[in-house]
């Protein structure tokens, strides 16, 4: 018997895939979720999304009788950030520091490799069919499905569900991550691809995590100083403080200094 699985981030597309599988009685044997860790104790997920994963999505699947496997690398982001480059090359002695946009070592080391290792250990010898959360209107991604390692099916394609419809479907079932209230997608809270509104959300609502990133920016001997393609993290911090100061000046409110010791 073929095992039908979903490798899942609990974003709208993978969650809508699960809803469709249950609604249309498609075979669904298990869900695999990989959680990236920021450090040994702190998740790399945006806190609102992590809370959704553990308090809404996983309990829902357990109630439906679908096993969920949580995969975590032994490594974490801070350990990778501080990893010192060896050898005699131009970068020798520097620390890896921020992941590069488009070539993210977090994706490679903390997601793809542990997931691949888990799949090798748990799926070897079995016939696997993998459901992927690729929407009916994601034409380029659908075209690449034939090159995937395991036979792959898009239930969103099969049932004609676009990205917008996937979001609506999750909302209708009370299974939409709150991350979509302030971000177009879910990703690590330290992602260099994060949009301005995602960074602003982190700055406003999670000053502890924001402070951790400022501490990393202050470390010496980094291979790159740039957090995004153009800006250091402390420059983004300064821009937000400036915005706040101007707003507070206009509103005659007193500016609250940010307690960062970095
Ligand atoms: S969300 Fe961003 S930081 Fe996290 S793995 Fe993806 S590209 Fe890398």
Fold and architecture overview:
- With about 260 residues, this protein is an alpha/beta fold.
- The chain has a single domain, classed as Rossmann fold.
- Helices cover about 45% and strands about 10% of the residues.
- It contains 10 helices and 5 strands; from the N terminus they run E-H-E-H-E-H-H-E-H-E-H-H-H-H-H.
- It has helices spanning about 10-25, 45-65, 75-80, 105-125, 140-145, 155-160, 165-170, 195-205, 205-215, 235-250, and strands at about 5-10, 30-35, 70, 130, 150-155.
- Strands 3-2-1-4-5 form a 5-stranded parallel β-sheet.
- Helix 1 links the parallel strand 1 (about 5-10) and strand 2 (about 30-35).
- Helix 1 crosses helix 7 (about 165-170).
- The N and C termini lie far apart (about 55 Å).
- It binds iron/sulfur cluster (SF4).
- Iron/sulfur cluster binds near residues 99 and 106.
């Amino acid at each position: 018997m073929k095992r039908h699985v979903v490798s899942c981030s609990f974003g709208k597309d993978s969650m809508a895939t699960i809803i469709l599988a249950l609604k249309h009685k498609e075979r669904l044997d298990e869900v695999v979720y990989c959680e990236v860790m920021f450090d040994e104790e702190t998740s790399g997920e945006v806190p609102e999304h992590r809370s959704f994963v553990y308090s809404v999505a996983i309990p829902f699947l357990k109630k439906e009788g679908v096993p969920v496997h949580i995969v975590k690398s032994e490594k974490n982001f801070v350990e990778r950030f501080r990893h010192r480059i060896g050898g005699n090359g131009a970068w020798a002695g520097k620390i890896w520091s921020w992941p590069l946009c488009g070539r993210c070592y977090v994706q490679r080391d903390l997601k793809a490799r542990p997931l691949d290792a888990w799949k090798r250990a748990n799926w070897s010898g079995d016939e696997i069919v993998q459901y992927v959360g690729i929407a009916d209107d994601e034409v380029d991604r659908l075209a690449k499905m034939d090159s995937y390692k395991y036979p792959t099916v898009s239930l969103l394609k099969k049932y004609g569900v676009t990205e917008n419809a996937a979001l609506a479907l999750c909302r209708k079932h009370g299974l939409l991550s709150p991350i979509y209230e302030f971000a177009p997608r879910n990703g690590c809270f330290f992602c260099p691809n994060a949009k301005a509104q995602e960074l602003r959300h982190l700055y406003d609502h999670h000053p502890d995590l924001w402070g951790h990133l400022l501490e990393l920016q202050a470390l010496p001997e980094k291979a790159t100083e740039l957090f995004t393609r153009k800006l250091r993290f402390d420059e983004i911090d300064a821009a937000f403080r400036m915005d706040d100061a101007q707003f507070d000046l206009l509103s005659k409110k007193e500016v609250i200094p940010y307690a960062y010791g970095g």
